[in-house]
Amino acid sequence: MHILKGVGVSPGVVSGRAVILNQREHVLRYHIAAKRVAHELERLEASRTRARQQLSDIRASVLDRRGREMASIFDAQLVMLDDPMLVPRAAGIIRDQAVNAEWAIERVFQEYGALFDEIADPYLRERKGDFGDVVGRLEMNLRPGLATPVDRLRELDEASVLVADELTPSLAAQVDWSRVRGFATDAGSRTYHTAILARSLDVPAVVGLHDASRIIQPGQLVVIDGGAGEVIVEPGEEILERASRHSDDRAPARPERQQPGLAATADGVRIRLDANIEFPDDLASARYAGAEGIGLYRSEFLLTGAWRADEPAQADENQQYDIYRRMLEGMAPGPVTVRTFDVDEDQLARPLPDGWAADGGRAGRQGLRGLRLSLTRPELFLVQLRALLRAARHGSLRILFPFVSGVEQLRAARRLIEEASADLAARGEQVPRVPVGVMIEIPAAAYTADLIAREVDFLTIGTNDLIQYCLAVDRADSRVSQLYEPLHPAILRMTIMVRRAAVRQRIPVSLCGEMASDPALLALLVGFGLTDFSMTPAAIPQARRILRDFRSDDLRALARRVARLPTAQEIERELETLMASTRSA
Question: Is 128 left (phi over 0), alpha (psi -120 to 50) or beta?
């Protein structure tokens, strides 16, 4: 028996014979004659046309079965498919280098895949998987007649588990999960789009295993424990029996519309559950899940999705205003918290709207990012601020500043809000007062949260980056990614510190990130006194159910025990005991 440890992203225990899938096959490069260049360009465009139809079909299927939130993954892929960085760039390589279309597409992936690797924001960095999914589909369509992975998986004649180097969202959306009981991948984390799909589909999954597809051999008996984050190769009878019991208990997941009632613990302590969204169209999923508001809208997606480089600056402001207004009206009377652009220099240097090119040399991407970068581009930041202030008349808006390390940056940003307000007043527009908050995601901000809290209307704890910077861990680096540990005592102590700072100033504090989406961690955080959370919409129904299982005094007692424990492993065992008590009840 051999146990591989990874990141459990979707709970459940299943067993089956291993099917091994290697997605990134080697692509041959060969020179083509000048007279064949036109033919190769036609092949490339035909591949894109076919890919567009395929992705549209997949999106329609996912929309019908899983709702708008999951379908939006493929909206993003359709945008990528038409991005000038992809097919037009590959066409240029074919013309300039006289090479085959397969190699040209692969070369584009290598070029821009490296840019994704350099992005500081972990969530955005992992969108490289979606980009690779689109590239792989184009390459597949350039080789018509070859069996696709989906075709091969349909030929399975027994229940199996899938072990892959990576599993793309489009493939995961097409797999028959009655035949494939669960999956394990070398790549990925909890914010991996495929992981989000797995939770929606109720498919047990473990990711971030690094070399499972090399270690596990086809046909070996494997148990996947998505709760424990373990893959057990050639398990004993006792483990197989446990997996069989769990498999029998599993039922097909069917999304249910959640009533927008209030979440609460068993003894009536009120808990607020908001949604994190990436696109305006995600509002429907948030409301469907029963979210009370939008706790985080990642506005930087407007940089690649909503704007176009050939539009004048004023259109940029108007287009942003229209998007923010529609979100506020769509979520009313619930609040919408918009995080101002959280990009780094590398992202800003790419082909973006007119005037958005970064100038000068490159600094460290972890240094010049978020609000810091916005303050160095005041003319661009003012465009966003004016659009937000104009939209505030249409609902309950809150502005959230990311990547703040001190009060000086906050004061500078507030001065720009005043300037934007003055600009609008000069146009004759009324400007309502808008609450302003800070995302606490750098240790410096956490340690000075008491000072920051005096000058804002609310605080939001951004756990994804806070964990990364506090523990000095890059989740994309396989050598240290296992050290990314939400239950590290330092992370829990920082969370408590920020919450106390907010309470002393009598301002709201919420927690946003993958910690809020994990039921066990959510229960612990409630024990620490947090009552406002923002999470992916798909996690909200489960959060409501789990909160009803616990009394707040029991969770406070749990938090006191956990606060004395010195290691993440001991804390995790305490939480496993807690969750086991709910399953046996």
Answer: alpha
pLDDT number for residue 76: 83
Q: What are phi and psi of 22, to 5 degrees?
A: -110, 110
| pTM confidence score | 0.63
User: Of 193, 210, 246, 488, which is the active-site residue?
Assistant: 193
pLDDT confidence of residue 227? 80
Residue 246 CA to residue 374 CA, distance in Å, equals 50
CA 423, CA 425: separation in Å to the nearest integer?
6
86 contact partners, CB below 8 Å, separation of at least 6: 80, 105, 108, 112, 134, 135, 138
List beta partners, residue 221.
17
**560: burial class by Cβ within 10 Å (0-12, 13-18, 19+)?**
exposed
Q: Report how far residue 558's alpha carbon sits from residue 491's, in angstroms, rounded to the nearest whole number.
A: 17
Three-class SS state of 192: coil
The span from the CA of 27 to the CA of 326, in Å, is 44
Answer whether residue 560 shows pLDDT above 70: yes
The verdict on whether 193 is a catalytic residue reads: yes
DSSP assignment of 417-430, as one string?
HHHHHHHHHHTT--
Q: Exposed, middle or buried: residue 5 (CB in 10 Å: 0-12, 13-18, 19+)?
A: middle
Radius of gyration of the chain (CA): 24
Give catalytic status of residue 488 as yes or no: no
**C-alpha to C-alpha distance for 62 and 56, rounded to whole angstroms:** 10
Enter the tokens of residue 338.
């918009």
Q: Is the pLDDT of residue 354 over 50?
A: no
- Within 10 A of 302 (CB to CB), how many other CB atoms are there? 21
For residue 83, what is the DSSP state? -
pLDDT tens digits along 39-49: 999 999 999 99
Angle of helix 568-584 versus helix 552-563 axis, rounded to 10: 160
**Spatial contact of 200 and 173, defined as CB atoms under 8 Å apart:** no
DSSP-assigned letters across all residues of 328-360: HHHHTTSEEEEEPP--BHHHHTSS-STT----S
How many whole angstroms separate alpha carbon 138 and alpha carbon 207? 25
Q: Taking the C-alpha atoms of 299, 303, 305 and 308 in order, what is their torsion angle to the nearest 10 degrees?
A: 140
What are phi and psi for residue 180, nearest 5 degrees? -100, 110
Q: Tell me which residue of 385, 319, 399 sits closest to 353, measured CA to CA.
A: 319
d(CA 357, CA 359): 6
Q: What is the pLDDT of residue 280?
A: 78
Specify whether the CB–CB gap between 536 and 294 falls below 8 A: no
CA distances in angstroms from 164 to 70, 182, 184, 185, 361, listed in the order given: 21, 11, 6, 5, 39
Cβ distance 279 to 73 under 8 Å? no
